[in-house]
């Protein structure tokens, strides 16, 4: 009996010592983790990041540190580490398989927020959609189209595809095409178009002066390409303004439109 009590006493001291040590490690570990997370938040580089990315990185580091702390405590208590590693690996694999698409979107969101190919209010096209960026979240990006539709784009496909940012640069070029009758004098038409562009307040001469030139011709028509630069916020005003003003100026000058060929003997279906 004395021998049994002695063994139980030794076991109690051993287990109690492990529990006490684990408790001390937990308390000290929590204090250290809080200090490290606080220091991490003071890094100046984080001031340049998006607040969402800042919070995500902070939480990720915190979760990682607490995971290491828990593993250390379990190890102190005498639980075999091989079993813990096997369980964590299996759980990680299962979670990764289940959340494969979500993790792809999460990674894409982090990349978008770090590298910033576009910002809120930019007009972009990507993943087969285009519109004004209203929100950039970790898992999705929200666009508002010109006709007032809200489009939710997963960040994974968006980041992995081509993105066109129409508003990042301060200036944009307006490209238009007009056609006239083949009998018109090209120089006359070009002078009319250039005069309209020079009088438009939205058009600027830097990086290039307004341009109008013949770009193609057939037996019935001539095609003119018109190019003019403007500031990005003025793009749509310049675009639609030039269309209307050039059409009106050509009409006032008596410039004829191409003749329409009428097919009298249409082929039978």
Q: Report the helical percentage.
A: 40-55%
How many domains comprise the coordinates? 3
The count of helical stretches stands at: 7
What spatial form do the alpha-carbon principal axes imply?
Answer: rod-shaped
> What is the CATH topology assignment of the largest domain?
Helix Hairpins
In N-to-C order, the SSE pattern is HHHHEEEEHEEHEEEH
Rg? 34 Å
Main pleated-sheet profile:
5 strands, antiparallel
> Beta fraction of the residues?
15-25%
> In terms of structural class, how would the helical and strand content be classed?
alpha+beta
Low-confidence stretches: 262-269
CATH architecture of the largest domain: Orthogonal Bundle
Distance between the termini: 108 Å
Multimeric organization: single chain
Strand order, main sheet: write it out: 4-3-2-1-5
Roughly what is the average pLDDT, rounded to an integer?
Answer: 83
Beta strand count: 9
Q: What is the CATH class designation of the largest domain?
A: Mainly Alpha
Plain-language structure description:
- The chain has 269 residues and is α+β, with helices and mostly antiparallel strands.
- The chain folds into three domains: 14-98, Helix Hairpins (Orthogonal Bundle), CATH 1.10.287; 117-165, SH3 type barrels (Roll), CATH 2.30.30.60; 171-252, Alpha-Beta Plaits.
- Helix content is 51%, strand content 21%.
- The protein contains seven helices and nine strands, in the order ααααββββαββαβββα.
- Helix 1 packs antiparallel against helix 2 (51-76) and helix 6 (186-199) crosses helix 7 (235-252).
